[in-house]
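Lab meeting minutes (informal)
Scribe: AK
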Amino acid sequence: VQPNNYSTFYDDQRQNWSIMFESEKAAMDFSKQVCIAKCNSSSVLDSVLYQDLLLGEGQGVEGGDSLEIAYTGWLFQNNGLGQVFDSNVNKDKLLRLKLGSGKIIKGWEEGMMGMKKGGRRYLIIPPAWAYGAQGVAGRVPPDSTLVFEVEVRRVKLVKECCGSDGQSVSSRDSPAPSPVLNSDGFSAD
């Protein structure tokens, strides 16, 4: 998906195609259907499929970064979207999480890497990368493939700090441990 309602892709002969849509919603809906088609055409879904719907701005997120996201999750049923099993889109609170913390499903850890603030992404997550054979009682049946639309509303990148020589050093490149987190997923400062 490109700005101004364009979508570009390569076919199986590596020929480049571009499509212009009448609206942003039409471009997003098409991109979602492409992701579902990829899922349906793979014999075994053994990794997360994702499709960017809006690219967002700024630096792509990495492990250790904290995010606030809006999301909706569907069960993947009958080769398409089934019922919604979870959403915070119409709620006051965004979901706060820290990538790489191990406190969210593996499919989100992988599928959200590289997203940017304001970005929206469509994720199709196989059972092994979601809730597996146990599922979630009353909400997600065992061995369910899940579909999520996630939007990054806020990003808190791993902090930069100064080295002993006064040079700026990103904590991503430093062996120093991450800041201690309070219960809401953001550092105490």
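Next up, CB showed the second protein from the same session:
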Amino acid sequence: FNLQLWNNYFHLAVAFITQDSLQLENFSHAKYNKIQNKYGDMRRLIGFAIRDMWYKLGQNKICFIPGMVGPILEMTLIPEVELRKATIPIFFDMMLCEYQRTGEFKKFENEIILKLDHEVEGGRGDEHYMQLFESILTECAKQHPGISSPVESFVSLVRGLLERLLDYRAVMSDESKDNRMSCTVNLL
């Protein structure tokens, strides 16, 4: 097992699918259709490959927690539904992996909260992501009763944080200082 090689693979693949020139939702409808018809959405293909390779790591997954939390989060925030559905379960696997090793998933939790703040502030994330994140992780937790309670608490925490971050992002363009201050207080 070569940690650096795997690390390079994951970082390169995430950098590929998050590059600006592949963010099809930013293009005009005509350009979007032309690219979709000619090439398809390459982000989905690479995202599925990342997911498949993650699950092939076996017991070595723990080596990538918390280091890969940020890049995986960045990938799951791409507004492509099938990509999100395929890659959000990686978060549960990360939690499960850390939980089995240490009895908790604090490293994962701290890293995702830190990175989520940065990503949403950068304009990524939406209401649909929040709902999908919650439903997928809750469903995964139901299949592992030993970890379901802490996962549900984590999901609730992230949902609250995401709601506040999205509100904060929305009011930053608002002229009312009171609205911005109220939102800032809620976020803190």
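CB comment: The chain has a mean pLDDT of 90.
No objections, moving on.
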